[in-house]
Amino acid sequence: MAEKDNKIYLTTPIYYVNSKPHIGHAYTTLAIDVLTRYYRILGKEVFFLTGTDEHGAKIAEAAQKAGKTPQEFCDEISGLFKTAWQNLNIDYSYFIRTTDKSHEEKVAEFLNVLKSNGYLYEGEYAGKYCVGCEKFVTDKDLVDGKCPDHKCEPQDVAEENWFFKLRQLLPKIKELIESDKLLILPEKAKSEVLGVIKQGLDDVSISRKSVSWGIKLPWEESQTVYVWIDALLNYWTVLQNLGKMEFWPVDLHLMGREILKFHCIMWPAILLAYYGDDAIDQLPKQAFCHGYFTIDGQKMSKTIGNIVDPNDLIKKYGTDATRYLLLTQFPFGGNDGDVSLSRLDEKYNSDLASGLGNLVARVVTLATKLKVQPVRIATQSVAGGSAKLKVKGSRLEQNILEAKNKYNFSLALENLKIDEALGAIWELIGACDKIIDTEKPWELANEKLKTKNEKVIKDLLVVLGEIAEMLKPFMPQTADKILEQIKTNKSEPLFPRLN
Ligand code: MSP
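^ Those are the sequences you sent over. The predicted structure of the assembly is below.
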């Protein structure tokens, strides 16, 4: 990952406010939260940006349906996103709303530059537009004349618009992607984007005449800025407005695959048009696409009524357990996956109640029973590996080493193998459980045994400390609770079993 004086800029998509936050939005935001916390522990200065995308026809229609003005509606739903992120303990640096005046002003400023750089021209657009996707579509995007995602016929649009000379920049973008200067991961996502470029793309309309809920084009007030251009500029307008351009450019942008094209083609294109076409240092360093998930095999949708609100999971499982459950449903960044609601209880019970929670309770209780002095946990590296065990060459040490060899925690996390990084922690948990089962450190029959058992417990406390450090980015409150318990030798259940 590129660094600017120890600074890292991480971004999520900004979410549409046409409906309430769901666990799809939570998934992306949570993953960036984990990375943010990880890099902050390593001493990096991280700017984590998320927010809401509030303009365009889709939002205006949703507001109308709700009997509210667009602004009232946006205020309400945007507030729900903020509350959800608070409940999920998301530690963002800034929450952008595209209806913020400061954003609107900077978008206008940016577009003025594109115009004076000769990248915009007036033209007639005649074609089809899908409001659900907020994009112009062609027949090849449709199935039986309908948008396959929104199951509705697109609108016919014919209007005078301002166009952006995207075609002119495509060879440059293609070359940057092919050479990984604009890194798109995983490989499958890169091929998909290159495939789209190969098929050929037209110049895009960057304004709409028939849509009034948007930012006015500075030189032609009868037109509003196309919502995707407005939205894609947020990563830049925020730093501009906060005077924090030292974080620029974006180091890592994370998203689902359905918006790859916008972030990997259109976004770099408008940046090149603004900064000059050799300004590759202004482009995002990495765009990463994670899998898209279904719920019990079905797409999350209002019609099916299977949209999962993260707040409901938090109510049932708690914040940290919800964070864990969401991130362990399927491998991160690979293929699409499925969230099986019926199996969440089982996973909670096995990994959290019986796994982590039970281990902490066993070790802390034994420490209290044997009056093992509370250990002073030296600040350990989040990467693990610094624990100093009492019993050198012990079985515990062997187990720990084996567990650590299986996954490299830091490497996994830095390569966004988030589930593997969690796997590394659960290997350690397993290693400790094994030791407790074989060493049975509760036997106090004679002095010799007692001394050995005390050492085993001390070592287990050290490893627990290490587990807590590794858990910090994922389950920050749990990590603190574990550290507190091993300091005070007071056991409190972390994850009550669900029946
Ligand atoms: N507003 C645009 C993005 C503009 S960014 C300049 C948008 N918003 S959205 O509300 O539809 O959010 C899409 C993103 O939410 C996905 O790219 C992904 O990050 C996340 N997810 C939404 N549903 C999801 C799943 N079912 N599974 C995984 N991630 C999901 O597109």
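The pocket of 5'-O-[(L-methionyl)-sulphamoyl]adenosine is lined by residues 13-16, 24-25, 27-28, 53, 231-232, 255-256, 258-259, 292-293, 300 (CB under 6 Å). The chain has a mean pLDDT of 92.

Shout if you want it in another format.
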